[in-house]
Amino acid sequence: MRIAATADVDERADIGAGSSVWHLAQVRERAVLGRECVIGRGAYIGTGVRLGDNVKVQNYALVYEPAEVGDGAFIGPAAVLTNDHRPRSVDPSGRQKRSGDWQPVGVTIEEGASIGARAVCVAPVRIGRWAMVGAGAVVTADVPDFALVVGVPARRIAWIGRAGQRLVSAQAQLWRCPVTGALYREVDGRIMEES
């Protein structure tokens, strides 16, 4: 485990073996980082956030609680995972809101998914397995497994494989990865790996 001297890692956080937390990053209490994670410069990992193994959180990304991030996921530079569907600084009477005045909701990022630079995932949403969110996208709805989404609001423009490349049509409802040759089947607007 490598923690930069300028990082702020709460003693109640659980940092997995081989993980790195770089300069000016903050990891809050009860956060759990799996093995071999990399937390970039200035990134923020909120209270109780759970990261799987081999997760990369790039510079200045903000991962607010109660986010859950699967193994091998990637969160790009300055990406944001929100936690308040209707944020307000004050309540209707004008009194500043405190932690007990609202219920945080989280973003779930499944295994192998990637969130592009400066993308925003507006909780509560689920980013499916091996999906990819393009840089600068704003995700306001769940993203299916193996989907490539871009734009504001984010919309699906292609299917992608585990290698991160767009799948090419092989025949009706069958898709192929141009890098690995792996086959994927489309059923009812969803993609599944062929066994």
From TrEMBL:
The lineage of its organism: Bacteria, Bacillati, Actinomycetota, Actinomycetes, Catenulisporales. It comes from the Bacteria. This is N-acetyltransferase. It comes from Actinocrinis puniceicyclus. Transmembrane segments: none annotated. InterPro entries: Hexapep, Trans_hexapeptide_repeat, Trimer_LpxA-like_sf. Gene3D superfamilies: Hexapeptide repeat proteins.
